[in-house]
């Protein structure tokens, strides 16, 4: 029974294999093979373009080695291994076919050229078949797919094209998005008629709105009368207040006069022997002064009259002779004078001269006032001097009482009249009664309501979006059908096109070969850290027109050994000088919640408990930090700007003290636990060791400092500027904060003028301002100086070297550019910046590796002679460079062209 079951299974496999179009392939295990191409002269690297496309001629020169040996370069010479000498010969190029599976290749500009030959045998070439070849590149254990190759038969290609034509016919039924949507899916004529009716309806509403607006603006007589009454009340009130203030000012002046008179009486301590004589003498002296001034003034007037008459008499005589005798009609000039000697007039003029000072001195009106006057009455005869009749006299009780009674307070006087003003204003309605309308419905209110209704209708029409309106006229069935076709586009593509084209394939062609097909596959792949050794193999399948598939067996594996400039990386570590400061800071911000009118920190509230734990955890981490120790802790507390500035300052101070007390209690427990743990240790044997604790753990409760700010407007301003969600009048609020000096008025202006913005600030920004900031001042343990200098490895440079080793040249160059060393030159060289790399190599120490890389760069730039000389110098300094030259295409070309290092081949 068991043998018969096995027989049936084998028979079924044979039948399926015989009926399948790939029966022969399964039987013969046909596959696509891989092989390395024959060695051929690789194309020169196109870094520096030459003036001509032709190859430069072979140069003939002689290289002198360091030992003094002459080596001909460029001449047709051959090394005689028997006689150990160069012989001039004619050499022909030989084509060598590689039969191995390993090849050396070079990395240039971050790319590696992968070349291999794909061979498709005759048995895989049928008209109704398509061969898909997928090369796989292995870098370490990571596979990387290369571009696909497709070899298609004629009938299979026709089948593909027929499927695409069917799919194109389906796509043509889909209306594209570039088509005019409204002309395609919308009943446009009905939509236009609807818009026209809507336009005329809007015009009617605007007309009605204008009519109601005109009616609303008509003044109400009752309101006008009330406004007149209100203006009169305001005027009477202002006049009454002005009158009371004027009376207060007059009363203050009267009180001041009374006080000055009483003070003068009190200060007048010199009194005559007879109390009534002082006032009588003052009266006599006053009368004497009036009489004397009158007499002196009369005498000065008479003297001046005679002086003027004597002085102008000659002028009058000349004027008389000129105008009345000669008959001249014009007025003579004022400077006209008669010049003739007149002894009488001269004598009269000299007698008319006088001095006002001498006259007043004669009458005793000078400083001493001791003159006499001409008078028949003794009252005006002389000035009375009271100096001999005065005596020191204390002020009387009446004068002192009058001084005390005359004392006054101007503020009290003004307040009295202001109170009088307030009393009159409250008693008489004419000074305070303001008339307002209550519970009435004037016509303007009704017209405003109608106008608002029409305005709302107009606003609704204006808010209508044509995009939303036109949706009422959509042909929804047509849109749904087209959208369904677009949604099924990809599904239809997979159903109709069974064998799609591959636009990213390296090759997709129809084959007509009578024998096997060979294709030279060449692709440049980016280098990475796993590119030192790469492997390539191919997989794929063969597809038939009826949908059958034959998986191609895996081909042989080709190995590529990649050479790059990373061998010459300088791995010498670099060091940088680092400045270490003794002092440092650690900051944190914590929000605490205090109920209204409460200053004690309630630890039962969750947010307060979390805040205390946050500060405690940070303090524990800093107290046990092996590098830093805590010098002090400063607590910065502030209040948000709502409320009075003075009250907020008191609130901030009391709440900060409450927080400090709670933290001091927590820090005391923490200090005790850490001190015990630090002072007692256990050795390996399990014994307790007690040691003295000096300054290892700071006593933090004694180091807490408190700093409070009533209202932190600077922090609020920074929050407003940096908040992207703050909407509204941000600039106006910032101007109020900058210009207004009074904090209470500043907060009132923002609250009254910008209510939405103030509500946002109250909800979002004020809690941030109320947060308590903790600043820990730290210092390094055991460090005495403020700063010290130390040398540490340059981790940035080491990271750049790591990038170079991983062949991430662009990342490495970003870091290495300022260093300008050999590794920088290698990064430049690997990215194709040959001149920049050559500049660095020329000023670097001239080692064999340096000379070798200069030779590569000179070869790239087209300087073959310099390249050969540098290569020979490098080989002379290090013999390994002769073998390295075969791995780099720039130098291997020169080695073959000029026949270098042939003696090494003979010895080997």
Task: Please give the structural blueprint.
Elements lengths: L1 H18 L3 H6 L4 E3 L25 E4 L5 E4 L3 E4 L4 E4 L13 E7 L2 E10 L8 E11 L2 E4 L3 E4 L1 H19 L8 H5 L2 H29 L4 H47 L2 E3 L2 H51 L17 H10 L3 H7 L27 E3 L4 H10 L3 H18 L15 H21 L2 H5 L5 H12 L1 H8 L10 E4 L6 E10 L6 E12 L4 E4 L5 E6 L11 E7 L1 E8 L15 H18 L4 E12 L5 H35 E3 L5 E3 L13 E8 L1 H10 L7 H10 L3 H11 L1 H15 L2 E9 L6 E7 L1 H11 L3 H8 L5 H9 L3 H10 L4 H13 L3 H14 L2 H5 L4 H10 L3 H6 L1
Parallel strand pairs: 6-17, 10-13, 20-23
Antiparallel strand pairs: 1-7, 2-3, 4-5, 6-7, 7-14, 8-9, 8-10, 8-15, 11-12, 15-16, 15-17, 18-25, 19-24, 20-24, 21-22
Overview of the molecule:
By secondary structure, the protein is an alpha+beta fold. Strands 1, 6, 7, 8, 9, 10, 13, 14, 15, 16 and 17 form an eleven-stranded mixed β-sheet that branches. Strands 19-24-20-23 form a four-stranded mixed β-sheet, with helices on one face. Strand 2 and strand 3 form a beta hairpin. Helix 22 (795-805) packs antiparallel against helix 23, helix 24 packs antiparallel against helix 25 (834-843) and helix 26 (848-860) packs antiparallel against helix 27. The model is unreliable at 41-55, 75-99, 326-332, 334-341 and 676-684 (pLDDT under 50).
